[in-house]
Amino acid sequence: MNILIEKNTMVPMRDGVKLATDVYRPAEDGQYPVIIQRLPYNKDLPAITMLLIDILRLVQAGYVMVIQDTRGRFASGGEFHPFYQEPADGADTIAWAASAPWSNGKVGLAGGSYFGATQWLAARETPEALLAAVPVITSADYYESWTYQGGAFQLGFILMWALGFALGEQQRRLKTGQATMEDLDKTLQAYGNISALYNQLPLVDVPVLQEVAPYYFDWLTHTSYDDYWRGIAPQEVYERVTAPALNIGGWFDIFLLGTLSNYQGMKQRGGSTRARQHQRLVIGPWSHGNFSGIFPEHDYGLLASAEAADITGAHLRWYNHWLKDSENGVEQDKPVKLFVMGPNTWREEDDWPLPDTQFRPYYLHSAGHANTATGNGTLSTEAPGDEFEDAYLYDPRNPVPTNGGATLIPGASIAANAGPRNQRSIETRNDVLCYTSAPLERPTEVTGPGAVRLLLGTGYRFHRQTRRCLSQWPRRVDHRRHLARPLPRIADAAGTTGAEPGVRTAHHCRCNIAGF
Length: 516
Description:
By secondary structure, the protein is an alpha/beta fold. It is about 20% helix and about 25% strand.
């Protein structure tokens, strides 16, 4: 099939601002269903636009692919204001695509991370032409897990993200004479020396962002889940979303909880019977930006990659049903498909949480010195009696580092530190409490939502903790899931563990607690 590519069509929004849009379509005349992908990271970069799906394969399957720079980014007009601009702009783009001469009026949405946010934010406007969405590795709101983690500002991710936007904006301004090479150089230096900025106080002291990324300071100002965040949260308006969604996430993705919340929330509160009954969930052994299933310290095998799982094929099957009326069995599929880490296989399930889940309480015990992995902290199903207190000294000048799990730290090295990692160096620190179970008597699968409840006393006015659930065996200690929440004196922390039947006989389970 020959493909016709139309670059930089300027699509007008309701306020007159025009957004640069590329159209990939079959060269043969006709009307086709349309798939839209809207992003702030430059539509001209194939490494970005084709990270999750093969757009040329979609066109060859009889779709028009529309890829658009969001407002204020790269070739588009206007000013960039993350999230807030996307509902109206997304709805206007859908209406434009549905009425184009090469369109049959049926529209689907695609993309991950912020492109996933543009899907949910457009869907909340209930566009008539929108019939299907595939949001990948994205969130249910833009406060928790995106900008803040349990009340703590996500400096490692958000500062890097804002500086990346600032670089693009300086480049745009340079072309129009609104910025100088010196302005661009200052931003490049800040981005390249981000480690120094991580240690700089106060957090608002980032002058290179003042003019080109003012929203960064809005995020610092809104420290709680207030109306600023509620106004743009998909989870607040599921009732307005009428399209079925194929939700795709990763066990080590920073937005996994959002992916799960979107699946569950839409099933319960979606704005149409079709949307409630046809939510689907796929979770692979992936992190944010890494869909290979291969991490620095662990390889999940040949079936683990998004390519092996044929994620583009999953998109096509979903679109074929909802946009082409193909009777391909999509509605009869089990709603949940998980990659089971350990045996490294895919498995279908009836729902999330898994219907046969057995929730089991474990309790922390010690003789008063659970510090380090060689301390006397234990973890068991035996209910506590009169227990000793465990204490550690938290020093904000020497915090416990993030090592693996769902993270985008360090800096621009996206996914370089994510996934399962050996925790031995962390567990030698005296400010880390370790509670270890007896060897397991039988192979045990750990899959589903978890919670930690602690009684905490602190000498600090503000103090937060992380909890890590790990599997330990004779020669290795792996990070399985990092939970982070703010803690008042009595607190609950919820999180999700990956499917890990690899917690085998003679292995131990361990819970680590540290301040940050």
